[in-house]
Design goal:
By secondary structure, the protein is an all-alpha fold. The protein folds into two domains: 152 residues, Ammonium transporter AmtB like domains (Ammonium transporter fold); 92 residues, no CATH class. 73% of the residues lie in helices and 2% in strands. The chain has twelve helices and two strands; from the N terminus they run H-E-H-H-E-H-H-H-H-H-H-H-H-H. Strands 1-2 form a two-stranded parallel ribbon. The longest helix is centred in the C-terminal third of the chain and has 29 residues. The radius of gyration is 20 Å and the shape is globular. 38% of the residues are buried.
């Protein structure tokens, strides 16, 4: 009885310890940036990044949250753990990024740093998608704390040292999060998972997941353009916009094509329609022209459906 009681205390105690640690570290090292400091008569310069940040924030907590609800027996846990992991990751990423870029000195937070913290949360949530129903909250928490550090170092090497262009995070967010999640899934692999009958969707869970897809689909141009500047930001919005619409059309067409009855597969619609936004991310701010964005989105949608139809079965990820 005592051992069971102690086991129940592990997660809440760890969460409280982590949050208290965040209190201390934020108090010692984190401050407002110049735009958040009080000005004469309370006036401050306007910041156009606020609207973009809100779009990205909705994607993290609403888009990803609903998208994870496709499993019939894991809806509440998916949405709840999505909220918990994102909240922990945002704080931890703020600290890790600040220490990495400023050493042990005090650093400031701004709208831009909030966006980058949301990006780190997106990375963790992408990894979470490969582990739905396979891990405990405690395991997910440990994974998030480790992944944020690896993600920050990987991004620092790629973006700062190697000067890699990845404005929308196709490599450092989406690909990294996917491979990290698959790696954790392999480490935690259990033969019992393959025999599980719970890893399937039902009508209402698919509807909730589709709501998440639509939120992500609508706000993806903001995600890809959030860190771009001036004309590059404008191009990122345009390119992502056209890549997404082309991807959507091709996804529906390909889904019907690979189905023996010519019907649409909800799994394809929920996920492959977003592939255009991911694919265009690396080059979203570049001059690839609208027709180039349409081509990239179309190819991404086609390959994503083919991957879900044939490759996923071979990997036996959701069997």
């Amino acid at each position: 009885m005592a051992s069971l009681w102690l086991a129940k205390l592990k997660l809440p105690v760890l969460l409280m310890v982590i949050q208290i640690t965040f209190f201390a570290l934020f108090g010692l090292f984190v401050d407002y940036d110049s735009e958040a400091r009080p000005r004469q008569y309370g006036l401050s310069e306007s910041n156009n990044n606020s609207a973009v940040f809100q779009d990205v924030h909705v994607m993290i907590f609403v888009g990803f949250g609903f998208l994870m609800m496709f499993l019939r027996r894991y809806g509440f846990s998916s949405m709840g753990l999505n909220l918990l992991l994102a909240a922990i990751t945002i704080q931890w990423s703020t600290l890790v990024g600040g220490f990495l870029h400023h050493g042990g000195d005090k650093f400031t937070v701004s709208i831009v740093s909030m966006v980058t913290s949301d990006f780190a949360a997106a990375t963790v949530l992408i990894s979470f998608g490969a582990l739905l129903g396979k891990t405990s909250p405690l395991q997910l928490l440990v994974m998030a704390l480790i992944e944020v550090i690896v993600y920050a170092v990987n991004e620092y090497i790629g973006i700062v040292l190697l000067q890699v262009s990845d404005i929308g995070g196709s490599m450092f967010i989406h690909a990294f999060g996917a491979y990290f999640g698959l790696s954790v899934a392999r480490v935690l692999y259990s033969p019992e998972v393959e025999k599980s009958t719970k890893e399937e969707s039902v009508y209402h869970s698919d509807m909730f997941a589709l709501v998440g897809t639509i939120f992500l689909w609508m706000f993806w141009p903001s995600f890809n353009s959030a860190l771009a500047m001036e004309d590059a930001q404008h191009r990122a919005v345009l390119n992502t916009y056209f890549a997404l619409v082309a991807c959507c059309v091709v996804t529906f067409a390909t889904s019907s094509l690979v189905n023996k009855n010519g019907k649409f597969d909800m799994v394809h619609i929920q996920n492959a329609t977003l592939a255009g936004g991911v694919a265009i991310g690396t080059s979203a701010d570049m001059i690839i022209m609208p027709y180039g964005a349409l081509i990239i989105g179309s190819v991404a949608g086609f390959l994503s459906v083919i991957g879900y139809k044939y490759v996923t079965v071979s990997l036996a990820i959701y069997q």
